Amino acid sequence: MLEAEFLVRRPASRVALSLSVEPGRRLGIFGPSGAGKTTALEVLAGLVVPTSGSVRLEDVLLTDVGPHVPATFVPPNERCIGLIAQRPQLFPHLNVRRNVLYGKGVLPMEQVNTLIERLELGSLLDERPSRLSGGQAQRVAIARTLARVNKALLLDEPFQGLDERLRRELLDLLDELLAPLMIPVVMVAHELELVALFADDLVVIADGQAVGVGSVQTLLREPPTISVASYVGYTNFFALDRATLIGVRPDRIVPEALPRAGYVAPVSIRAMRDVGTGVRFRLQLHDQEVTVTFPDDRLATQADPQVTLLDPPVFTSDGVFVRRWIGSVIGRDGGRQER
Length: 339
Prior knowledge:
five-stranded antiparallel sheet, 2 domains, alpha+beta, Rossmann fold
């Protein structure tokens, strides 16, 4: 178990978080730039000493700082916590082999060789970092971290700057490599889709504090407030009546009427454009515009186009989650029948 509760106070910012990650679970930390995501990882890794608070791993106290306790601080290199950072940070004067094997706590060579083979680094072992592509360098960084005995692993936007195909490839590979380790994993990313694909649980932070905590599925489908919903992909909120609003996520819209699946409503097509991977529509839905990409242009072939918002969340007028919408049909005359 990796547990932490801490406060980091700086002249222009404040980060106060409480985290708990069980062995084998993956926690995603998500939020806007400057929210405190990287600071949280730095506290866990021992790169930042908090103003107050503690970090504990497997019942071992790694950090304990406060006004009424003797300070405890285990340095980063003694924490058995691996860190894969945004940039590979390889030693430029060492080849790939020596970068992977550098430092203490290296696993038996049989396991290291298996890791090297799985990461397809065998032909690059004698190369220097300057001769590697961005994806190759990040593979080396992953190998160097996983080639050690880690009791926990931290990922700080590890695929930043890589193209979409390579990010997906490395994410799938990392997912496979971590599966048998059964250690707590914490990942920071500013891309929601990446976090959702990788993590089991999610902490949404804003202005240095948690505004939403729960499983990925729960927070994406049942965000506790409109504020949290706006962070996790909901772009529009429509008033159903004076007391309630409904949230809209573009990736949860389908171009047909499915009354039993969610909220069905008529739309007007303002613009459409083929973007190669699909057709992007700018739709008028009630009194707001929504931009969404569908696999094809079938919505445009409908005489009276309708879309379905799949089981969307419903909020009170104060922005508090009430329930998920079961199903309804909205007629052209504005009449509504809920299911």
